[in-house]
Amino acid sequence: MKDFEYVAPVTAEEALSLLSQYKEEAKIIAGGQSMLVVMRQGLLAPEVVVDVKGITALDYMTYDEREGLKIGALTTHRAIETSPLIQKQFRVLSEMERNLATIQTRNWGTIGGNLCHGDPAGDPAPVLIVLGAMLKLRKLTGERIVAMEDFSRDILEVDLEPSEMLIEIQVPPPRPHTGTAHEKLMVMQGDAGIVGVAVSITLKPGNGICEDARIVLSNAASIPLRAKEAERCLAGRAIDGDLLTEAGEVASKEASPPSDVHASEEYRREMIKVFVKRVANKALERAKLEVR
Ligand SMILES: Cc1cc2nc3c(=O)[nH]c(=O)nc-3n(C[C@H](O)[C@H](O)[C@H](O)COP(=O)(O)OP(=O)(O)OC[C@H]3O[C@@H](n4cnc5c(N)ncnc54)[C@H](O)[C@@H]3O)c2cc1C
Predict the structure, then answer these.
(1) Superfamily of domain 179-291
(2) What pLDDT, on the 0 to 100 scale, is given for residue 1?
(3) Same fold, 56-171 and 179-291
(4) Among 105, 127, 164, which residue has the most ligand 1 atoms within 8 Å of its CB, making it the best to mutate?
(5) Cβ of 117 below 6 Å from ligand 1
(6) Which is it for strands 142-147 and 134-139: parallel, antiparallel or unpaired?
(7) Average pLDDT, stretch 31-44?
(8) 109: CA distance to ligand 1 center in Å?
(9) pTM, whole model, 2 decimals?
(10) Domain 5-51 - what CATH class?
């Protein structure tokens, strides 16, 4: 690993001022769970490493019925997984975190680091996309809000300027008559998903017709993929087993999954069919009971 200068600001303002000073030469490190891997592999060799882990003001979760959920970028996976607030209001987030990596990685890795790493196999992004999450990004001269859905650009590439920092993840209040679920295909507990699927289903009150469906796949394209054709199969219709099979087949065609040492493209396409059907069915059952 190439030598670098190490700085450890304790406020976001201090960090932003360092990023603005060093620009492309600097790179943020939070939990280091992905950063250290890419630095060891020589894919990144920053001159200055800005360690933001000590900015405790960005480690929080709050919930308000009007504003929804706010998660500070430096909140760890483990804190989200075990939070009674998350378990009550957004059970799907807690379930997703429980299957993410090992407990050691969850204890130190942050939600912000996961999203900014931009791995298309990452678990939080698909769930946050079906929940309609927004990201608050800040630089020294101002802030902007970006939809989670628009944040990923390509493999390990996100919509983030060198002088910007992810500050907060904002999840709107749960929609009524909506159920949400996430599952991924793992060889061993905590493995990165061979494929992952997040689904939310909103039902029209009274008649059980699907008002809105959101389906997002991980490890099925170069970014978390919203399977819009599959969503259209479900919207406006009464969902049954045949329709879920159709949605799975359509999603599998929409995807462009990789072939790698873990699985072939063909196998991933088959698993997308299975998991879209399974997870959409779970979301549907939850919509009937209003479990988010
Ligand atoms: C053994 C292992 C297993 C794993 N399994 C899974 C898995 O099953 N599912 C899954 O989704 N992930 C998995 N991961 C990835 C892991 O979840 C992420 O690496 C971790 O959450 C990243 O968080 P971090 O705080 O360590 O980020 P870091 O590694 O410190 O940073 C990652 C990237 O984000 C940038 N960054 C960090 N914070 C900010 C910020 N606030 N603003 C702007 N940029 C920022 C950094 O510059 C860097 O580019 C695994 C990792 C390991 C090591």
Answers:
(1) CO dehydrogenase flavoprotein, C-terminal domain (3.30.390.50)
(2) 85
(3) no
(4) 105
(5) yes
(6) antiparallel
(7) 95
(8) 6
(9) 0.97
(10) alpha beta
